[in-house]
Every structure is written in structure tokens, then in C-alpha cells.
Amino acid sequence: MTDTLAARRFVTLHARLIDRRRMDGDPALIRSALAAYRNPDGGFGYLEPDLPDPASQPITALAALEVLHEIGAAPDDPLMVDVAGWLETVTHTDGGLDFVLPYDADAIPHAPWMTPPAERTSSLHMTAAVAAAAHRAGMGAGPGRTWLDHASAFVWARLDHLDPRPGYEWKYVIDFLDAVADRARAAPVLDTVATTLAGRESIPVAGGTEGEVITALTAAPTPGHLGRTLFDRAAIERQLDELERGQQDDGGWTFDWLHWDDAVAWAWRGKLTVDALRTLATNGRLAGAPA
Prior knowledge:
The protein is mostly helical. The protein has helices at 4-14, 17-24, 27-35, 58-70, 78-90, 124-137, 145-158, 168-179, 183-197, 216-219, 233-245, 262-282, and strands spanning 202-204, 213-215.
């Protein structure tokens, strides 16, 4: 049985302010905490635990859009409008975003997978992730529609060239297919993914830590998510059981990817603890949690 009091104590002690506010659940206070990460260029800095870059990055735009969706922000919310404007300035002519923008890797601590590449190039992984979050947050109904249409066109054009090795790119492509309105267009792509994932209960992460996977529940966290069609319903229920059992003795949840810094681990655990409670609540396993 989930101990929500212990989870709240854990978040209060160890989480970043943004996740403490998410735990409290007040949209205005969550937005205020998010705004503290906003940069003058309209993007966000310091919001990604694995890349505490003060400058704006695509991955922090992703995190910001997820929070804006969570609080039900309007499409014309200044934070949404400004991040769309920033995304316009860093998007390649083909509509794609870099996985990570150049930064001084010697000066800024970062996870190994967040090392800046030798040259800039469009990433299906990151573009699909940010576009999915933008669709879900309602950006297409506001001033950010131009950027979102351009980015979505890039994703659609690249879906025939999906990396054959399952991993996070697959997760975010599935998320994009769920978030877009054109389900008829999404269906054949999802069929292709389903063929590869047939019989699996998770998505293996090529190049990750030993045994690292993206669970079906992570890929499709809500009951109505299109990704639920890729996995057996019994697998989702088993993974919800595992999520419930995953609460640690200190009240928080943890993760299976590389633990490369203690402070970063606390930041992730705080976020994941709030996420776990929201997932359990959304799936009918927990009453009175943030949802």
C-alpha cells in the first residue's frame, strides 16, 4: 500500500522547489516555480537534472511544456508563447531540434548522454518529444502553432527512418502519435512499432545500463494513451503493482538509469516520486494524490 505521507515527507526534504510545488498541487504556485527557470530568451535553464545548463536547451523546453500541460495553462500563457518563440530561434530549417545545443562541457557537469555533439543536427528523438509535449499542452491553439506545425512535419517525415534499436526515441515517437489529433495518420506507424514490440512488456534501451528498459507504463502512463494498444493490459496492471511496490523505505521512488551524481539523483527521485503518485492516481490506484 502506498504511503502518501512518507512520499510527501520525502519530497519536502529532498525535491527541487518545482517538484515540491507539484506535490502541493496549486497551479498558480507551480507556474510561479516554473517561471523562476525562465531565461530572458524565452527558454528555460537549470530545469533538466542531467544537464544543469543555465542556458536554454530543447530538453528544458520539454520539461517546461510538460509542467504547463500539467497545470492546464492556456495556449496564450506568456510562458508558452515565449518558449515557442525561443524554439523558433533554434529549430533547423527542416523543422528539427538538436538533441542538445552546444555548451561548455568542461564547465557544466552533465550526464554522459548529454554531451554536446561535434556538430549540430536534427534529432527525431528530441523533436518528437518536444512536439508531443507542445501538442498536449495546447500550443497548436495559440501563437506557437507555426513552430509546432513545422516541427510536426519534420517528425512525420522521419517516421519511416525510425532507429531500429528500441529506446527513448521509440518512447517519444509513441508519445507524439498519441498527442497528435490525426489518429488515422498515426495508426500505420503504430502498427509498425507494434510488430517490433510484439510480446514485449517493455522497450529495451539500447546502450543503457544493464537491464535498463522503458516500461509499458512509462511509455503509456495514462489509460487513454494510444501506446496502451502496444502492450497487454495484464502487463500494465503488473507494472502498476510494481510501481506501488517501488516506494523505497525513505518514502520516495528511484530509477534504473545511470546514477552519475548524488545531487542529481535526489533531484530525479523528487520528480519521480511526484510522477509515481500522479500515475497511480490517474490509473485508479490512489485517491487524493496529485493528478
